[in-house]
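Helix-turn-helix domain-containing protein: structure tokens wanted.
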Amino acid sequence: MEYRQGSRPLRADAARNVEKIITAARECFHEKGPNVPLQLIAETAQVGPATLFRNFADKEALVLAVISRQLRLHVDPAVSRALSEADAGAALMHVIESIVQVAAEESALLDALVGRRGVLTTISGNIIEALGVLLGRAQHQGTVRTDVSEEDVIRIIAMLIGSVDTIEHGTNAWKRPVALMEDALRPVAAVRPLPAQTAVPGVELPVG
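Answer:
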């Protein structure tokens, strides 16, 4: 995986250090939570603090780099498969699902962010482009509403990423809001059964 500093690719040794830092950061955030000290991340990566700060200005920059890597690892392959699928509507949904799944699996990292808007900056251009291509194809096929824009799709993804805050870590509860949003994109009301209902942690809803 190539890492860059500005427009230039990093030297091999520098790129290895960045990869070590990102791997250590993901491990530390999952094990220690959002308040893990950057010093501990540097120690886990076996690099000096100066090396860490030379590549990442602060904790948020490091968190976004980890999420960006996870998106490249897990969403890029989903995009490649989706672009070759005959049913563009289903393919579009698969890409959306893969993005939200990464967000759900990396919820320990999201907890370290002040807001969620920054996460959208980690979604690479090829993913954004693929979403637009799949949306156009699906609308042409009649499987997605024609009044839906690319901006709508991005905002829907942002909302779904935000919903991760309401989901218990380590569960598949993210699938329900994704299914609801996907059905809203269809030109007619969907009749498929929704994934199982789960409680919202910390929220007590009235019975009946």
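The mean pLDDT is 87. The radius of gyration is 19 Å.

Cheers.
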